[in-house]
Known about the structure:
By secondary structure, the chain is an all-alpha fold. The chain is built from 8 helices and 2 strands; from the N terminus they run ααααααββαα. Helix 2 (16-51) packs antiparallel against helix 8. The longest helix is centred in the middle third of the chain and has 47 residues, at 108-154.
Amino acid sequence: MGCYDCCMRCLGGVPYCSLVATLLCFSGIALFCGCGHQALTETERLIETYFARNLQDYITLAYIIQYFQYVIYGLASFFFLYCIALLAEGFYTTSAAKQTFGEFRSTMCGRCLSSSFIVMTYLLAVLWLLVFAFSALPVYFFYNMDATCSTIDVLTETPASINQLCVDARQYGLLPWNAVPGKACGMTLSNICKTREYQMTYNLYVAAFAGAGITLLALLTYTVSSTYNFAVLRYLGRKGIGPRC
Length: 245
């Protein structure tokens, strides 16, 4: 057999769907965890600088941010290992492996493992859908803040009107109602929107939101590919191929 034919047979055994899903998952988790972690740090800085003067007003928020950052560390580690496991399972169950390595031996253990991955990935996709929706909340907050700042810039010639345009962090549950000042209005709010910290935090949350969406797409791709691979194993199992374990 020539080198070209050997390479073609090796490439034929690659589960491309699982490979694409793995790349999507790695890139999505990297975006979500990296940008989300830094965005939380910048959010605490913004609240501390512009919306709260007393440490006791935002100490609870600081603890929550720290807790979510630890969760992000765990998510990054978990998804790295889980994606590697799904990719390995894709190599094991892909139908192309039968053409590459000869007669495919489907076992009861292999089919149970594949069905377990399908259920786990499906449940993980449902849970991640909630994370995807939750990651849209800070984007919504900063979008409203940016829209308010744009309105203030348009109405700069009527200062009496722009002073009534405010963003109250207490309304979003970020601060207690007795926090001072708790909100930013008028030109103060407009100046906040022009700072580097605000622009970077906004962009980081958008990137984290996009990363959550990419990860969700990867999990759905995994679900489809795993279901197809399981169907192949079931078909081979009904033909009585291979031993039982």
